[in-house]
User: Which sequence fits this backbone?
């Protein structure tokens, strides 16, 4: 699944293009520049990777080789509700893998990917520090402990309901 | 300068500083290896198969990274060496889709030869099999890649770099997820591959196949 750049992202990318032009073009600058791009865009779209490769005059394959090696770089935009599934030792033992699979199946994306509407993204993370609640998943900053397949279902229902309430409120505010 | 070294009790003459693995192979001494390519330096020492024991050094060493020196005494067939080699091969086979019947490299596959030489079964017992997805990578316009056959020896990458200075192929990811992938910018970038395909020739297994038609 390939995401298209939003107009805002295109603008940021253009801005980045101008700003890295002044940067050193030594190979050793590869990671710092990738970090800078990700800091502004939140991820590394193909257009940005190409831009970095051109600036440093290294093959595209080499930039991807480095960027895919490090977990800190992502190739899909973060969703509005980023879902992080804990894969720490305790969560692993309590079936974190199954929870991850549940989210993946429900959203029809793989870990590291984002839904087409950019609402949800799934990531696996190492220990989030509340092992007593294992298995744990985070939606945004909210911790959900003792996860179970049925709770995954429940989470989405809750988010849906919340969205509808907000929608209603917005309409009400608009009509007043 | 020519030096004399002893390998498995045989006295050999070689140029000082030349590659120990190459010296052994040239003299008809079998040392298992997958990632070695004659003439391409430095060796990646990626396959962990070419171990030998050197007198005076405690642990076995990878022969591809050792320059020969005068008076060197080498043993290629010791229990410790064979154990390391068998383990390395078993690990390689545990991430390998052992489906020789349907692989074009059947009967001329380095893994089959090594398994025979080291007396290791092609289906390693006691290890879980971890395979990658997708099974076939068709990103490259002319070359089909089978990640589950690949042994990550990097021969294809190094040959490509040696010939062209750069390559549309690169290692991607890490750990169990490491795969060779094609990152061609435009289809034109991969155009030279159609007439070159050196990577397909150097693959010790059947991981790279030229697409036909």
Assistant:
């Amino acid at each position: 699944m390939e995401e298209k750049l939003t107009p805002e992202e295109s603008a940021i990318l253009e801005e980045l293009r101008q700003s890295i032009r002044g940067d050193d073009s030594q190979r050793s600058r590869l990671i710092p520049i990738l970090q800078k791009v990700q800091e502004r865009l939140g991820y590394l779209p193909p257009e940005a990777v190409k831009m970095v490769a051109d600036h440093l005059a290294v093959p595209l394959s080499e930039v991807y080789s480095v960027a895919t090696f490090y977990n800190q770089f992502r190739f899909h935009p973060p969703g509005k509700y980023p879902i992080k599934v804990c894969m720490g030792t305790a969560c692993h033992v309590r079936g974190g893998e199954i929870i991850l699979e549940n989210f993946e199946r429900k959203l029809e994306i793989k870990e590291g990917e984002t839904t087409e509407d950019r609402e949800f993204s799934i990531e696996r993370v190492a220990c989030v520090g509340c092992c007593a609640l294992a298995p744990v998943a985070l939606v945004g900053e909210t911790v959900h402990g003792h996860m179970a397949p049925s709770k995954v279902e429940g989470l989405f229902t809750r988010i849906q309901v919340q969205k509808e309430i907000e929608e209603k409120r917005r309409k009400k505010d608009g009509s007043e | 300068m020519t030096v004399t070294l002893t390998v498995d009790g045989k006295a050999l003459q070689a140029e000082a500083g030349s590659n120990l693995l190459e010296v052994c192979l040239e003299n008809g001494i079998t040392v298992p290896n997958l990632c070695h390519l004659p003439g391409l330096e430095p060796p990646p020492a990626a396959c962990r198969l070419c171990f030998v024991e050197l007198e005076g050094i405690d642990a076995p060493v990878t022969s591809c990274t050792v320059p020969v020196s005068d008076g060197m005494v080498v043993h290629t067939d010791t229990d410790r060496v064979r154990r390391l080699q068998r383990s390395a091969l078993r690990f390689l086979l545990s991430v390998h889709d052992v489906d020789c019947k349907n692989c074009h490299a059947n009967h001329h596959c380095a893994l089959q030869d090594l398994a025979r030489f080291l007396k290791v079964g092609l289906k390693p017992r006691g290890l879980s099999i971890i395979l990658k997805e997708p099974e076939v990578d068709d990103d490259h316009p002319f070359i089909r890649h089978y990640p589950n056959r690949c042994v990550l020896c990097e021969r294809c990458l190094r040959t490509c770099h040696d010939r062209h200075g750069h390559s549309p192929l690169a290692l991607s990811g890490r750990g169990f997820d490491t795969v060779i992938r094609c990152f061609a910018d435009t289809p034109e970038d991969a155009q030279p591959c159609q007439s070159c395909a050196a990577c397909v020739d150097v693959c010790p297994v059947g991981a790279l196949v030229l697409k036909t038609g």
